[in-house]
Amino acid sequence: MRHKNFLLQGDIGIGKSTIIRDSIIPYIDFVGGYYTQRVLDGEEKVGFLISPIKSKQDYVLNRDIKDLRLKDKSRLFIFKKPNGAWSFNNEVFVHYSIKYLSKGLQDNKKLLVADELGGMEFQNDSFLQEIGKILLSQVPVLGVLKSSCNFRKLKRATLLETSCKNLEQFKSFLSQRAQVILLAPGMDGNEVVAQVQAFIKKSIMVGN
User: Fold this and answer.
1) What's the first-to-final CA gap in the chain, in angstroms?
2) What is the pTM of this model?
3) Percentage of the chain modeled with pLDDT above 90
C-alpha cells in the first residue's frame, strides 16, 4: 500500500460520505471512528451531529431533529439559530472526534473513519497534534477532507476564525501520509468506489 491513509475531497453533495458509508457497511465490525450526520427539520438543514461508527443500523447520514434525544443534542457541533445564523461549537467536535478515533485504536479496530476534517477544529492546536498522532499510528484512516472551496463557504457563512493557512498546512502534512482523491462533477464514480473498497479490504486484511 503506497499510502496508509485515504481521503476523499470534493464539493458539498457530490457523494463523499455516501461512498464511504456504503463501502464500510460490510466490514463495520472492524471499523471505528466518527462521521457527521445532517440534522433536518423537514427538508431544511438545521445542524450537524458528530456520531461514532457503531453498527449498520446507526450509520445513517440524515437525522430528523424530532428524533434527537437529549444526549444526541450534546453532540451537535453546528446548528442554525432562530434568526437563521449558523453557530459552531468547536469544543464539541474536537472532544468527540478525538474520543471516537482514540476508542477505535483502543478497541484494536482495523480501520478508522474520520468524516470529515478541515473546518473549525483547525483552530485547535491540541486537535492538530492528536489527529497527527492518529494519522501516524499503525491503523489506516479513511476520511473526508474539506475542499478549499467548501472551507471558504463555511468561513463566510459562520465568520469562522480559522485561516486557509491552517488547512493548507494540514494538507502539506498529509501529502506524504495519505492518498487524497478529488471528486469532481463528471468523474467516473465507479472508479473511485473501487479504489475506496480496495483500500478498505486491504486495511481489514492486514493482520488477519
Assistant:
1) 16
2) 0.87
3) 53
